[in-house]
Amino acid sequence: MAKQIMTVQTFAKAGIADLMAGGTLGNALDVGQGFAFANDGKTILLCSIATGSASNETVTFTAVNDEDGRTETLAPVIVKGKIAVYGPFPPALWNDGNGMVNAALTQKQVGDSYTAIKMPY
Question: What is the 3-state secondary structure (H, E, C) of 60-71?
Fold first, then answer.
């Protein structure tokens, strides 16, 4: 299975009725292939790990080489039963050649949700 491309939700001043709707990674995610989402520098990733998950989750964001040669990755651990927010992601540091942020999970369990959201400001 190929890398899953997320649909980015746009956050309006009025809000989003269901944050985990349109841009959520499906349960069919192939963990080994990872996922990506479009990024304009105002995009965040909202992560919710279900309380019933067997363990914590690690999401690894892949950095790109910038003009200073930076190549580090970001690999935070999300504790089960918690919600975490990552971003915004400066495009020069995180976007690949297609304008996407690339990430991978150590596992994906039923009930875990990941949603990319474009902020208005």
Answer: EEECCCCCCCCC
Interval 51-62 mean pLDDT: 81
Task: Give burial (CB, 10 Å; 0-12/13-18/19+) of 28.
Answer: exposed
Closest CA to 57 of 34, 39, 75, 32: 75
Q: Tens digits of per-residue pLDDT, 63-103?
A: 888 778 777 888 999 888 888 999 999 999 999 999 999 99
Using the 8-state DSSP alphabet, how is residue 94 labeled? H
* Interior angle at CA 52, CA 50 and CA 58, nearest 5: 55
Q: CB–CB of 5/63 below 8 Å?
A: no
Q: Using the 8-state DSSP alphabet, how is residue 95 labeled?
A: B
Q: In the chain, where are the structural domains located?
A: 4-11+22-118
The backbone region for 41, taken as left when phi is positive above 0, alpha when psi lies in -120 to 50, beta otherwise, is left
Q: Tokens 């992601």 belong to which residue? A: 89
pTM, two decimal places: 0.83
